[in-house]
TrEMBL record, chains A, B:
Signal peptide (from-to): none
Keyword Transcription regulation: yes
Protein name: Transcriptional regulator, LacI family
Alphabetical list of CDD domains matching this protein: HTH_LacI, PBP1_LacI_sugar_binding-like
Renumbered residue ranges of the record's region Disordered: 310-337
Origin species: Krasilnikoviella flava
Classification via Pfam families: LacI, Peripla_BP_3
Source organism superkingdom: Bacteria
Record keywords: DNA-binding, Transcription, Transcription regulation
Domain HTH lacI-type: 2-56
Annotated GO MF terms: DNA-binding transcription factor activity; transcription cis-regulatory region binding
Amino acid sequence: MVTMSDVAREAGVSMMTVSNVLTGRKRVGEPTRDRVLAAVESLGYEVNLTARHLRAGRTDTVALIVPSFHDYFGEVADRIAPLIEAGGRHLVLERTSADARSEMESLSVPRLQMYDGVFLSVAGLGRDEIDRVPTSAPIVLLGEREMPGRFDHVRLANGEGARLATAHMLERGSRRVLALGGAVGSSAGMESDRRAGWAEAHRAAGLVPDDRLVVPLPDFTSEAAHQALGQVLDDGPAFDGIFAVNDTVAFGALAALAERGVRVPDEVQLAGFDNLDVSRFVPPGITSVDPGYDVVAATAVRLLEQRMAGSDAPREHVTTPVSLVERGSTRADVGPG
Amino acid sequence: MVTMSDVAREAGVSMMTVSNVLTGRKRVGEPTRDRVLAAVESLGYEVNLTARHLRAGRTDTVALIVPSFHDYFGEVADRIAPLIEAGGRHLVLERTSADARSEMESLSVPRLQMYDGVFLSVAGLGRDEIDRVPTSAPIVLLGEREMPGRFDHVRLANGEGARLATAHMLERGSRRVLALGGAVGSSAGMESDRRAGWAEAHRAAGLVPDDRLVVPLPDFTSEAAHQALGQVLDDGPAFDGIFAVNDTVAFGALAALAERGVRVPDEVQLAGFDNLDVSRFVPPGITSVDPGYDVVAATAVRLLEQRMAGSDAPREHVTTPVSLVERGSTRADVGPG
DNA sequence: CTGTTAGCGCTTTCAA
DNA sequence: TTGAAAGCGCTAACAG
């Protein structure tokens, strides 16, 4: 490995001069500069960033640590990346494994403090476990559940989104709207917030939410939704609308409906959550709750940069607004129900 | 910041002993060990990985650097991650910006050598530019084009996949199959390989590939495909099949067809490439070329680990096999054409 | 404008 | 089993 002192020797200058040429932090005379660059070129020298980072005490790198970068977090990452770059830092993504054990593992403190800041979304961890994550690096939590007060936290208006989607279908004539992927117990996760919104929409419409319409899922994949909805269609309660906990789940539902020849939106209306790009294109177009990705990203970046700048302002817990995007999977007018 | 020497002082031992306790590399007496751990706990000490890395000359981290982690590369990343973890290293993802300038930027040597190894997929760079990427770190190229011989390279059998998909539709009665996203010029990218396969299938069926059926796209998004196919439907040549250069493009096509009431597969058959998870579920199910993600991942990891182990075996250029997954968007039997 | 010194936090020798 | 010294490659601070 070629080091800076090799270059210095080759150019007949001190290491400091090489460093100055490379970083541009100090004025260096033209001829000296040229000799240094020539030496760099001829030796094929490359700065060692690890060494620079150790010296500087910063890595100029921010991590987005999420359970999966498909779907929602992929979209979020796409918006966060340019904002972080604009601040002169790099964004890297890390995937936490699904299970809580290795999730805690990947949150091992040493790794966290390798970064100037971290966006963290924890799927499997309970609130207490999160609370035990040391605060060595600036951390902004992303995620749809209660979080310890000692972290900044950005979350969506989940209940409101679910309410919007469900109310929309009720307005358009549905009377029995399934909550596909709704939590049955009283966990504090995203699914229970979304389920609460579903229930609230029913009550606002003068209907009593029927617990049998809440269909839990082992995970929020298309496959799980496909299977579960197949079961409901075969021998579950009757329904005429589906609020899917996210768009991926909605695709699984769509497949199950199509297989049985159930027409969308005529017989069953369908709405999802996340407004994935593909949801616009999948016929008949999936009505979906839009998370306002730009706002989520901008808020998260603002909080993290504030923290990285050393602010000790009180932690913020921000809930960002959502909106409903109506498409062909729900009806345009009030139907017969 | 608490350092190891703080812990050593607190525990009344030398730094070396602290290090040994923490890494477990050497035997340490029980009582000493306990005192060290107590000090670590009470001071809230965290190893500084940057320092460790500098000392070790390794970062135990591998990067997957891709233009986008949606779709194809997201799937690849999901398969690569566990394999890398199994080797005791971490996988991080970085996104290259779309444009070649900042792509070259993110490939700046210093960043590359921060990693023990790199999987690199370059979208915007030409072969010559890639050839100029310094070989400081072990690099395995991923991507569907000719690459310099000095790198290991994993690519798909693009031509074969396109041929399979097109031949399948021709067998099932299509006579005029659009190549949606096919390259028009003679660039050496993925799209021209796939277009070549499309043409070959025609010839094998005794048909003459019609260049007017090759529809170029500004980018391989659903939106671009939606627009372009809309144009073709409105005033382009007649067709009865579509080979979409990837599944994302296929979704855009599906939307354009649905808007105009064109029935799939009865009037137009449709096949894509990548076999995304969602393609299984989008009615009527998108026939797609499966890239064999597990094989791609295993091959790439094998090559990189070999390189990271210091091998100077000749560079390998591996083309991994693909297969066709038939679904409802193409016909089950020979139709009337 | 250029060079010298010191040290970021850790671990690999080597010695006790 | 424990410790002291040396140095990974770089740059801030200060001299010259």
